[in-house]
Amino acid sequence: MDVLGSGHEQVVFCSDPGSGLRAVIAIYSTALGPALGGTRFHPYPTEEAAVADALALSKAMAYKNSLAGLDLGGGKAVIIGDPHTDKTEALLRAYGRFVESLGGRYLTACDVGTHNADLDVVARETRYAHGRSEAYGGCGDSSVLTAYGVFQGMRAAAEHRWGKPSLAGRTVAVAGVGKVGSWLVDRLVEDGADVVVTDVDAAAVERVLARHPAVDAVDDTATLVRTPSDVYAPCALGGALDDETVAALEAEIVCGGANNQLAHEGTAEALLRRGVLYAPDYLVNAGGVIQVEDERHGFSFARAEARAAGIFDVALRVFRAADEQGTSPAAAADRLAEERMAAVGRLATIRLPR
């Protein structure tokens, strides 16, 4: 793996044998500000797999933060291990000390395998841990605004495709009804959509059906993909849009909360050829990072929600740019993010008095 050729500013390997900590912190860019990105706690099969994930996720965070209009760069950390058995106070605090040692170049938050309470522990060793619990002055669960942002992106896609920013009367297939997916279902039902769901966790499906008896459920994702729908919303694991899924997809729009949905670089073009409007994942799921960023200023849910509502306008801008450029929305979003990183990042060359 060519780490030095990946375009990252800094990659840090963290080891504390006493606590069992083995972690990688990847900083892709600080052109717009300190690199913000969550900490993923996962039992990677190899160190190389952990590094690859950190590199990919940190780059995606740079683009996400840029497109969201935040004065933040992109970074990500991964802790190698099983969060159910390996997570301890000592390990989290050791990790916090490594974050602190970077002097604010990297700001951490929650991700898969870490929760608000974990960041409370990490914050005992560093000033740069965010996404803490409300009891400790943090923003709490960011899944609410993540789902809200996805919903705004879906409304924008509906406006672009059908001329009306509403899912009323449309069928939306939601793959994965964990925290983000279940909140998204709430929004869709309220908007008048017909919703079909699936999840590997049967209990998660049961909780959704208990709240919304009119929602339908199918056994698995393969069935859901082939279910006639207007919108397909992948809200579970990354890589959800592989060649087989794209070929079988019945929906006109893809818009969901999962990270890294495109299985490979050609997937966006494959969707375009099939006439499917793709809402780039890092654009529409930015509500969570908007919520976490707001914590740095004394958290206000209303203020963060108002900013997350802006995902609607950004998504429309991306869709229109893609049409004008004759390219996929994924390529158009990348271009807009890169342009902002270059234009605003250049201002750092204007030296200020000290």
TrEMBL record:
Species in which this protein is naturally found: Geodermatophilus sabuli
CDD domains: NAD_bind_Leu_Phe_Val_DH
GO BP term, example: amino acid metabolic process
Active site per database record: 76
Keyword Oxidoreductase assigned: yes
Gene3D superfamilies: Leucine Dehydrogenase, chain A, domain 1 (3.40.50.10860), NAD(P)-binding Rossmann-like Domain (3.40.50.720)
Ranges in a coiled coil: none
Pfam family, one: ELFV_dehydrog_N
Binding site for NAD(+): 176-181
Lineage: Bacteria, Bacillati, Actinomycetota, Actinomycetes, Geodermatophilales
Family: Belongs to the Glu/Leu/Phe/Val dehydrogenases family.
Residue ranges occupied by any Glutamate/phenylalanine/leucine/valine/L-tryptophan dehydrogenase C-terminal domain in the UniProt entry: 140-349
SUPFAM superfamilies the record matches: Aminoacid dehydrogenase-like, N-terminal domain, NAD(P)-binding Rossmann-fold domains
Protein name: Glu/Leu/Phe/Val dehydrogenase
GO MF: nucleotide binding; oxidoreductase activity, acting on the CH-NH2 group of donors, NAD or NADP as acceptor
UniProtKB keywords: NAD, Nucleotide-binding, Oxidoreductase
